[in-house]
Amino acid sequence: MIALCLLVNCALADSTTEMMWRSQATAPLSIELTAKEKAWLARHKKIRVAFDDSLPPYSFADSDGRFNGIAVDIFDELSRKLDIRFEPFPRKSWNQLYRAAAEHRADVVATMVDRPERRLWFNFTHPYLTKSLALITRESDAEIKTPDDLAGRTVAYTKGYQFSEGIRKKHPSIKPHPVGSMLECLQSVGAQKADACITFVATANYLQAKHPLTGIKFAGFYERHTADESIAVRGDWPILAGILQKGLDVLSEAEMNAIYFKWVPPPPEVSVVVEKNAVPALSEESPLAENGLQETISPFLFLFVIGYVWIWSLRVRRHLRRASPPPRQDEPARIPPPNPQLPGDFERMLLKRATDLQNYDIRFRNLIENQSKNYFFFQCDKKGKITYVSPSVTQMLGHRPDEFIAGFQHYITDNPENLSVNNLFELNRQGIPCAPFALEVYDSGDERHWLEITSEPVYDEFGNCIGVDCLVFEITKRRQEDERLIWLSFHDELTGLANRRLFIERLQQSLAMANRNRMPFAVHYLDLDGFKSLNDRLGHAAGDHALKEVAKKLMATLRDTDTAARFGGDEFALLLPDCDEQACASVAKKIVEIMHEPISYNGEAVRLGVSIGIALYPRNADNCDALLRYADASMYHAKQKRLGYSFEA
């Protein structure tokens, strides 16, 4: 019965609660800032924070223009705990907020999804909020339960959001019903204008409480945790991202829940009613059925709990072992001398057992101490102090074992990914296993290394956690290769510019922002003039050099918020957000001028030209493919007429 209540409450809570937070018994009492961090805060008395003003309950502006919501309250707590003065940045469209932070006119964006391409301009904390998408249907509809059930149905969604762009692509057979706000989205289902709507879970809960809506229900999740929100900090202030992460880490689960449930109703209490006819073995006349049900269940539950604890204790005792370091080469295992008072057979058994243990210790010592190229091993006591580290740490990091034990905390870098390490060790010391985690440290030459640590709690014979065993592998090369692969998946290897995939993704984002905020933007399509003859005359090496120089010229011309991409060969594309016709013409004219400047190659001056086609949103097209086709056609028009650039296809 108790388990059933808990399961029901958990299911209900999962449909509403969207806090991404660690599970811990207590939060640290204070924030441990380094001397460098304290000095930095002393020099920066005011931090400008940009809030999205149209996404309740995460952040929104009320009727008086004041910012409210979950993220705003969390920043109030961070301000109090870190003694930082946060100043709200004036209300702007999302595109303008993004640009302001990229240009350092705003210091922090309170909620932003951490994507690889954004790391060029921002430092991110770990995600602290998530947004799941929900399927909302009419209360009487029992057929729509999953996204696959939307086929052929009328589906409402809010215009201007990135997820809205993907709904029709994923479900081409739906009948779209776009609306202007999430409240209209819910109301359209209640008014039977749509069969279902897709919106954020917490937003739906907030609006349901603020504007009581009838005839609708939560049918299921459309997508779960697809937009984890982090705090984004301007690119030249990585230290602030680390400070804010420390502030987030000390917010307790109780504090976060209090903030969340201030804006989103908590899950309702669930009661379980046991009907008489649910127990067929008891008749209605039975006094046990009428009066003794609780007395019968209580002993049953008691026995069940006792049995469960007993089984659990057996499982724990199977894994019990002491946290003692392996013997060093100069400290062989101690073998107790034979006791002359013991019977002969028993004495021989003890000696054999001691010998076996000594051999086992030798094999274990050789295993962990001689594999120096692959890993090292260390142990911590219950207080977190390192008590042993294998000699192979010297081969990997250059530190002697005693140096590593004494200076471990000083060898940890200021990388934000390291901020959660102490919490993970604390969980281990509480006897809670953790998944392998990464840690960046300095070696003896101050070079950075990435380590992967597999940790395991160690128990005494009574089941108490007395320390942690850690096995450490170096993964620096793997991390570099992973980062390189991520970078290559979004960039052109020769020029370093964005590739077609990243350009299309940013173009889709610009479309979503423009639909939401009614802001114009432009796409330029470029083709170099004379590039083929250069390749034929001087070879591919000269062509590659010219392409690199063209990329440098483009990047020197564009703003930080603009995107330059190489589509292949000598074709390039530019994305200019928040740009009208006059600004587009100015940029195109400047590019034509700098492209006519000679490029030096092996002492020879090489000259190239360029033809540019321009597509304006929303004048020329309203989707990605159409904008690119129009810009491409305009480029050919400019090339044929020798115009340099053209707005006409």
Shape: globular
Distance between the termini: 71 Å
Indicate the multimeric state.
Answer: single chain
Per DSSP, the total helix count is: 21
Mean pLDDT across the residues is: 80
Q: Provide the domain count.
A: 4
Q: Summarize the amount of helix as a percent range.
A: 40-55%
Largest beta-sheet characterization: 5 strands, mixed
CATH fold-level topology of the largest domain: Alpha-Beta Plaits
Number of beta strands: 25
With strands numbered from the N-terminus, the spatial order across the biggest sheet is 5-1-6-13-7
Annotated CATH homologous superfamily of the largest domain: Reverse transcriptase/Diguanylate cyclase domain
Rg, rounded, reads: 32 Å
CATH class of the largest domain: Alpha Beta
CATH architecture of the largest domain: 2-Layer Sandwich
Poorly predicted sequence stretches spanning 5 or more consecutive residues: 1-28, 269-343
Structural class computed from helices and strand pairing: alpha+beta
Strand-residue proportion: 15-25%
Protein name: PAS domain S-box/diguanylate cyclase (GGDEF) domain-containing protein
Domain PAS: 360-405
InterPro entries: DGC-Regulatory_Protein (IPR052163), GGDEF_dom (IPR000160), Nucleotide_cyclase (IPR029787), PAS (IPR000014), PAS-like_dom_sf (IPR035965), Rev_trsase/Diguanyl_cyclase (IPR043128), Solute-binding_3/MltF_N (IPR001638)
Region (Disordered): 323-342
Keywords for this entry:
649 residues, 25 strands, five-stranded mixed beta sheet, 4 domains, 21 helices, disordered N terminus, 42% helix, 21% strand, alpha+beta
